[in-house]
Amino acid sequence: MSIICIKCNKLFSTQSSHNRHVREVHKDCSDPVPYGRNTIWNNRCLEENCDCVFRCNKDLVNHLQKTHLMQSFETQFHCFENMSDFENWKSITESLNNCSYIFKSKHSSTIGEIIYYKCNRSKTNYIAKAHKEKRLPKSQGSCKMNVLCTSEIKVIKENGKILVEYQKCHYGHDLEIQHIRLPKSEKQNIASKLVSGITPQRSAKFSAFNLNF
Fold it and tell me: What is the rounded end-to-end Cα distance, in angstroms, of the chain?
């Protein structure tokens, strides 16, 4: 499937080549593309009577703020000495906000390595192989949406420092306990409770309670 540039109608075989073309030739943020156009972008506006989709998360956030007057978005900036300090901050942030962030991608740039973590409710580009057995539906339903949530963490490794740009606001879903990915330490804690004779239901309640502190 080809991707079309909405500014000059040039066709590209891959999303990455299209993105590079937009940055280098047109040198500006992408215009919104209607859902019906030939695009694989997942940063979609979900507001009523609006079918805009954007190349990057920042463009969607900017659209929601200016067009739909949403003021809840909050971008935070942090600096850490090492990845261990960052991981500790990430774990605390997930617990305090009842959410989870998973690795999405990384690439090298002129300023250093850049890593993206997305809200775990965001759509994944992974497609299961045809020969694999289909998974049974989860009792609590799938945590994945058909679009990308706006909440993300961008990590830049620059000059020995870990620079973080964090979009805190989630969009397109509620924060639901059943869809949170528990850290390994919390899973071990639940396992120890089960061994002690605490039922899975009570253990889950303890876990949900702890995530709020």
Answer: 47
C-alpha distance from residue 140 to each of 136, 178, 197 (Å): 12, 7, 24
Give the tens place of pLDDT for each residue, 143-184: 565 678 999 999 999 989 999 999 999 998 766 544 455 555
Tokens of 33: 């593309």
- Give the bridge partners for 105, in sequence order: 116
The answer to whether domain 73-123+144-181 has CATH 3.40.50 is no
pTM here is 0.62
Q: Enumerate the domain spans of the chain.
A: 3-66, 73-123+144-181, 182-213
Question: Residue 190 in contact with residue 207, Cβ under 8 Å?
Answer: yes
Query: Under a CB-based contact definition with an 8 Å cutoff, are residues 207 and 186 in contact?
Result: yes
